[in-house]
Amino acid sequence: MFRSLARLHHQFGNALSLCKRRTNHHHFSCSLKYSSVATERKRFYQDVTISQGEGGLFEINLDRRKLKTPGGKLLTLPNEALAIAVATEWDAQRDSLKFYAMHLTTLCNTALDNPTQRNEDQMISAALKFLETDTVCYRVEEPYGLVDLQKNEWDPVLQWIENRYDVTIGSSSSIMGPDISQTTKDTFYQHLKSYNFWSLTGLEYVIAQLKSVVLSLGMIDRYLSVEQAVLLSRLEEEYQIQCWGNVEWAHDYDMYELRARTAAGALFVHLSSEGSTVKRKILQD
């Protein structure tokens, strides 16, 4: 029914190839004050490279300048896979730097500067707050077409996560939402304790985009694609569009923006995990 409305779009293109280069140039700083707001700046560099610094951490070089966070810290990344992804983001910029679209860089800055000064336990608690108001747990009582749509599309995801984590979540049409047991909250809390600080930064970002712990974990665990998770998070809006139509460009723009942010957050979670490595082909004569 609803899935016939979905047309999975082309996935993001291949990352631009980057050459890795170590440099002994003097330490230049490149401290850029920016956030997720719609700001731009003229591109001021030619080449983007990565290098490995002290403690095995990776750094991003814009020509001879080392990239810094808005807080003034050297942008150091925990593994090469994430460094390549961030460097690709900078290399993909054309005449102007669109900071508002550089989601991976923003997440790295957030993890390093930690502007809210929270620890991992506080981040987990904040993320799980969304479980109490999770998008897929709140159901309408009418119109009946939307009632059926929510049941058909959201129930399978709820059933999956309940089986996957051996928890009970449920759904409700009450304004108070479903009654989430402490046992269920504790189970998710212990699961999220396995995430490192960087991964939690990305996960919390994804949950905030989708307004759903259920959809976020479904995507992180690869049960849902980015496109599916975003579509399910906008189920009621998509239903209304099918009934009444939409503003042609506005709907598509919002959809693609949400997909881009969600995809970047999910990628950040996976690349910031301690096991992320870069696989290289061995060329033989």
Secondary structure: helix percent: 40-55%
Approximately how much beta-strand content do the residues carry? 5-15%
The biggest sheet, with number of strands, parallel, antiparallel or mixed sense and barrel status, is: 5 strands, mixed
How would you classify the helix and strand content by structural class?
alpha+beta
Number of separate helices: 10
Count of DSSP strands: 7
| Shape estimate | globular
Beginning-to-end CA distance, first to last residue: 54 Å
Stretches where pLDDT is under 50 for at least 5 consecutive residues are 1-38
Mean of residue pLDDT values: 85
Cα radius of gyration in angstroms: 21 Å
Which series of helices and strands comes N to C?
EEEEEEHEHHHHHHHHH
Reconstruct the topology from this structure.
Elements: E1 28-31, E2 40-42, E3 48-52, E4 58-62, E5 65-68, E6 76-77, H1 80-91, E7 96-98, H2 103-113, H3 120-129, H4 144-165, H5 182-192, H6 197-210, H7 213-220, H8 226-233, H9 235-244, H10 248-271
Parallel strand pairs: 1-5
Antiparallel strand pairs: 2-7, 3-4, 4-5, 4-6
Helix pairs in contact: 2-6, 3-6, 4-7, 6-7, 6-10, 7-8, 8-10
Give an overview in words.
This protein has ten helices and seven strands. The strands form two sheets. Strands 1, 3, 4, 5 and 6 form a five-stranded mixed beta sheet that branches. A two-stranded antiparallel ribbon has the order 2-7. Strand 3 and strand 4 form a beta hairpin. The radius of gyration is 21 Å and the shape is globular. It is an alpha+beta fold and 285 residues long. 46% of the residues lie in helices and 9% in strands.
